[in-house]
Amino acid sequence: MPESRSLRLTNKGKLDAEFLRVNSVADEYENLIKIDTPLIYASINLYCKSPKDCEMALQGKIPVGYNMSYKIYEHICRKEYLSCFGVNTKGDPNVLFKHNQLDTILSNDLEIVASLSSFEQVLFKSKKLEDVTGHHHINKKHKNQFEIDFRSGKK
Fold this sequence. Notes:
By secondary structure, this protein is α+β, with helices and mostly antiparallel strands. The chain has helices spanning 3-12, 23-26, 51-58, 71-80, 94-98, 109-115, 143-152, and strands at residues 17-22, 32-34, 40-48, 64-67, 84-87, 104-108, 124-125, 130-139. Strands 1, 2, 3, 4, 5, 6, 7 and 8 form an eight-stranded mixed beta sheet that branches. Strand 4, helix 4 (71-80) and strand 5 form a beta-alpha-beta unit. The model has no long low-confidence stretch (mean pLDDT 80).
């Protein structure tokens, strides 16, 4: 299910919980409560074919591709004034370099490391744009039940 649809359905109470979302994405949904324990930590950076490409991208002078499955990238593009466009990478950020002929992508360490074997060249990493943590979010109607189960250890 697409991320935005599952967030809306969880917010409306039609789904019980939303798996692994970063705060800046889930914050706009008033009925979601974040479970405090993070599931992942990741740093988001530009990954570029050359240091000059990173510099140009940070100035908004060249396009930056990103995996459109991650809503956090849209947020960072707006915040950093990057010239971005999303692509369905099917989990392989190398697609952005190969098929879209880009010199710069927005990604996170975990996504890049998982795809290192498919990269055909050395990548340069920009300054860190944002650190993120991923959390579960539940609909607030389940808050009391979750607190009871969590403290007692019951599932």
